[in-house]
Fold this sequence. Notes:
Number of domains: 4
Family: Belongs to the glycosyl hydrolase 35 family.
Strand order of the largest sheet: 8-7-6-5-4-11-10-9
CATH class of the largest domain: Alpha Beta
Helix content: 10-25%
Organism: Luteibacter rhizovicinus DSM 16549
InterPro entries: Betagal_dom2, Betagal_dom2_sf, BetaGal_dom3, BetaGal_dom3_sf, BetaGal_jelly_roll_dom, Galactose-bd-like_sf, GH, Gly_Hdrlase_35_cat
Oligomer: single chain
Bound molecules: beta-D-galactopyranose
Catalytic activity: Hydrolysis of terminal non-reducing beta-D-galactose residues in beta-D-galactosides
Enzyme class: hydrolase
Amino acid sequence: MQAPAPAAGLASIAAPAAAPTSPQPHTIAYDRYSLIIDGKPTYLWSGSFHYWRLPSPDLWADVLQKMKAAGFNAVEIYFDWGYHSPRRGVYDFSGIRDVDRLLDMARDAGIYVIARPGPYINAETDAGGFPGWLVTTAGKPRSTAPDYTAAYREWMTEIDRILARHQLTDGRGTVLLYQVENELYDDSADTRRYMQDIEDKAHADGITVPLIGNHNDNFFTGVGAVDMPGYDSYPADFDCTRPERWNNVYDFASERKRLTRSPLFFPEFQGGAFDVWGGPGYEACRKLTGPDFERVFYESNIAAGSTMQNFYMTYGGINWGWLSSPGVYTSYDYGAPITANRTLTTKYDQQKLIGYMTQAVPSLARTDAVATSAPDNPRLRVNARVNPEDGTRFYILRHADATDTSNDTTHLRIALGTKTETTVPQQPGTAIRIDGRDSKVLLANVHFGKQDLAYSTSELMTQLSLGDRDIAVLYGRHDEDGETVLRYAAEPTTQVIDGKVAMHWDAATHTLRLNYRHDGLARVAVHQGDSTLLLLIGDNEAAIRFWQLPTQAGPILLRGPYLARTAIHDGDRLALTGDTDAAGEIEVFTAPDTRGFSWNGVPVAANVTASASLQAHLDGPTPVSLPHLTTWHISEAAPEIAPAFDDSAWKAADRATTPNPYWNHKLPILDADDYDFHHGNVWYRGHFKATGKETAILLGANTGVHLGNHGIFTAWLNGHFLGNNPSGAQQFPIDPRWLKAGGDNVVSVLVENTGHLQEEHSGTFREPRGLIGASFAGAPTDIRWKIQGNVGGEALPDPIRGPFNAGGFYGERMGWHLPGFSDGRWATTTLPRATDKPGVDWYRTSFRLDLPAGQDVPIALRIHDIAPHHYRAIIFINGWQMGRYISDVGPQTDFELPAGLLNTHGDNTIAIASWSTAQDGGLGEVSLVAQGNLRSALHVGTVAAPDYEQVMQAQRALSKPAKGDATK
Ligand code: GAL
């Protein structure tokens, strides 16, 4: 099978549910050519998606369907240990963490899963996926250290148990491959034993699918070897500031040679790039890795013989809460084919064109490189491959220097059957065009249905057979010449239904030659004997409007809408689902006995066209307008600054020992992780008896330095602002009038924790967070520290929103971010609002949405500052932390509020905590923006989560609140 057949509709999509069927076991094998699933060589065309970066399960189904619709037959998924485990021994797989549901959705969407449970995953996420509680352990990570081993086995037991239930091998799901660890480029004996232990554990836990690796040349044989090794490759790098810059194509020939048992496999080939704080934004990353990049590099992989390509990322998502590792910001859009708000881009269109071909020409899964004549234009190069069994040939044509931007033309000499090479195109005065940074895969000697395609200088997007009729979609760049030659036993009858196509029958060679220019959509019908062919020849813009969907009775083709999701035959009618971005036509190519169809459950009136298709009109979305956020309630929210604040219930930061070998600073240990505060902002209050001689205070903090330094801490002495610093140590002068000589003095420090570093195998994720030292100049005065981060530390009062959602701001501890909190006594304000007072202010407002039913309107919250100010804001929608905005760093200003968290048919609460880090803080203008508007089959259920009362109750049950906390 080319891809698993989808179940009849997803739970969240308006389509009839499938009858339960008994599981069918499947075989997964592989050889040096390709994966072989149930005996069929299969081209793996896969994309990465992280469910934990999209905390609204119905939207998982949306992403998976969008991937399936674009021709992806697999999705690669990291499972994030830290996301599921707030404390040792505690694992949550419910709600937004319901991995069973995710894997069922993948099965229902008809898409294979490459499972990547780590234990280490990297992924620009906090500690590379290690849980917060692992930070303060001692053993070397990613080694056989006993404490590390005990920890990760705990996780593997939990996640393997779920993955094992969904394996393709026993037919209960579509888990196809299982990745062991992540990019471990270390071949030491200990690392090999560590790898072997994960593998033995997976097998003991019931994993039966092949084990894969993305460790480049490592773990091919011997202890720790994986079944299918793979190579990760990011040829465009990650510098989105220069999106025009290209690198050349690397030749994977030696890797191809090294892999003697398994195919050339890219577990991660570049699908976009992450952006950093202060970076150029994701549209630049999307340009860096745009459709031209996709064509040239992904087709070069085909030329190198790869039959397993996974793209990192296909949908990137959102680093909501404190999920990100230091350096990257809230959006993990990644410049991917599907944007963070689930919009389809030109990168998606391009991947669809190639992806469909990889599935439409099964011969591509088994090819050898073969010599071929060079193009007559020396600026160009061609690689040829042939399927040794059926003779299908693939010519991959691009510039010799892949960075070349010149537009060129050429002729190619291609092998047709056993004859000597033929120069194509044959039509005098025409040539094959290759523009700068373009690439084409041209086919020769292809058999499909009853057809025998000699060659085409157009690219084949897809082909399918409907009853007695074969259909092929060919395409080329707008206005380029194309030539297609088909073989027939005798002269066929032909009919140009649409467009301008010249035809020439050559009786000597038994070939029908079609010449045309790619412009809109041309249609040609060709009949000969019992063969009927409909050729649809489009320019790229026309081609991308086609969708091929599987049904119980084989594939169908349709054209027109923004997205086609599912198709089910129901007697002589077809039930289709999908999305439209505007009113327009839909054309359906389906079995001849199909009388009509419905769209999103509503029957539509269709005409039969000259192409023997069904055509109808579809409505677009109705326009939407969003409420203006005019009135805000505001409260000051940093009582910790005041000397009289009661911190008696806070933990004393007075420890003298820690297992964490990374604490190499003076005592006491101040690392927030040692006090179980792993995520978000942390308050420290230091009490000291002043001598009066203190002239300055030296404060050292580590907020997480990586890819630039955009964390921050701010400090106050007896309520007087000392200043701020990004990370590291700073001496703050003390005005003697601020000190109470002989009395209790307080220094209050608010420290951001931008996340734990990713792990390079040495323990970097253990780098301390929070204060790392404090001392006075002028006098050796001692300080006694108290610390307060998120309420409960590892014992979460709100496990639904989980460990990354809330930090240690006063308002977070008081539940001000939650729906149901009453801000009625707060003052009101409008935005923007400026303040000269460093500290933290909370802003709250509510609004009602009633979006038209059956529409998918991705909504974002926008913060707009005319000029940057010194503040950073944390954005909550209905209690969910969906954004971190830094006015003086950027670049993100629009924060996606995913449906499901956002109530699109009811009341919503926004809470924004703004931390003014200097005397020019405040909060900019805040508005809601629609990032799209689709009439859609998507239905999104509300994600259940506790409100203010429920969380407060849980908090009370956990511990007695701090006195100061209780009084405000
Ligand atoms: C890879 C890694 C991924 C991700 C990617 C960059 O090296 O395996 O997890 O971090 O780099 O986005």
